[in-house]
Design brief:
mainly alpha; 0% strand; DUF4168 domain-containing protein; DUF4168
């Protein structure tokens, strides 16, 4: 996906989805951290089952519930998981796209 091919509407939808899932992601991470105590919580990636299957049973359930809700949130902003992940990956390698997203996040936060 080229940064130029990402429409303004997609950036708005992406930023809206990020705003919907990020607070929950932080909350879930803290909850998981409190359950596993001093163990290091490795990266949890909803699209990579092995990152979830490595977690203890109770924590797996929390992670799966989060992933299911995040998927619903992303889709409610008219993006597929693939589109969301492509925008994320593209932005990580493109400062201009990252700036467009940050600008949109700021705009949405000021509503």
């Amino acid at each position: 996906m080229s940064p130029e091919s990402i429409k303004t509407e997609d950036i708005t939808n992406y930023a809206s989805a990020v705003m919907a899932i990020e607070p929950r992601r932080q909350e879930i991470y803290a909850q998981i951290q409190s359950i596993v105590k001093k163990q290091q919580v490795s990266e949890i990636n909803c699209t990579k089952r092995d990152t979830i299957s490595r977690l203890p049973g109770d924590v797996q359930k929390i992670a799966v519930a989060y992933c299911n809700q995040a998927k619903k949130d992303i889709e409610s902003y008219k993006l597929t998981i693939t589109q969301f992940n492509q925008i994320t990956a593209t932005a990580q390698g493109n400062p201009n796209l990252e700036k467009r997203i940050q600008t949109e996040l700021i705009r949405l936060n000021q509503r």
